[in-house]
Amino acid sequence: MEFVEWTDKYSTGNPLVDAYHHIFFQMVQEFGASLKSDEGAPMADRVAFLVDYTFMHFDSEERMMEKAGYPDLEAHKQVHQHFRDQVKAIHQSYLENPDRMKAEEVLALVQEWFAHHILGEDMRYKPWLETGKA
Ligand SMILES: [Fe+2]
């Protein structure tokens, strides 16, 4: 399975947000590559880590938008919340039945949403967060 590669088109212009997003993409690549070997942490732990990281990033991004006075903060928060619920459900179904919902699928689903979200909603706050002061 091919995962999405980070390119400049995903840049929001805010170095902290970009670092968060970039690390997320790298993590998916690494976890995806490690599916082919048995080395390192168990895949269930990696998936849990990725879920935690995603939630942590949303909290941080929401604080930055708030600090920057981003006018559509509430709508953006709702999109995050909707995805938090979805990620929890995906994670749960992976834990309950790893044969039906494979780790690779969890990684791909989360990343697909994430990439789409960055290019859509996240780009809208660009003018407010671009300077990196928030
Ligand atoms: Fe976002």
Q: What is the name of the CATH superfamily?
A: Hemerythrin-like
Please report the first level of CATH classification, the CATH class.
Answer: Mainly Alpha
Rg, alpha carbons: 15 Å
- CATH-scheme architecture: Up-down Bundle
What count of structural domains? 1
Biggest sheet, in brief? none
Give the CA-based shape: globular
Bound molecules: fe (ii) ion
Order of helices and strands: HHHHH
List how many beta strands DSSP finds: 0
Mean pLDDT: 89
Count helical runs.
5
Assess the beta-strand content as a share of residues.
Answer: under 5%
Q: In the CATH scheme, what's the topology name?
A: Four Helix Bundle (Hemerythrin (Met), subunit A)
For the record, give the distance between the C-alpha atoms at the N and C termini, rounded to a whole number: 36 Å
Low-confidence stretches: none
Query: Structural class of the helix and strand makeup?
Result: mainly alpha
Share of residues in helices: over 70%
What would your notes on this structure say?
The model has no long low-confidence stretch (mean pLDDT about 90). The chain has one domain (about 15-130): Hemerythrin-like (Four Helix Bundle (Hemerythrin (Met), subunit A)). The N and C termini lie far apart (about 35 Å). The chain has helices at about 15-35, 45-65, 75-95, 105-125, 125-130. About 70% of the residues lie in helices and about 0% in strands. The protein is mainly α and about 130 residues long. It contains five helices and no strands. Helix 1 (about 15-35) packs antiparallel against helix 2, helix 2 packs antiparallel against helix 3 (about 75-95) and helix 3 packs antiparallel against helix 4. It is globular. The structure holds fe (ii) ion. Fe (ii) ion binds near residues 80, 117 and 122.
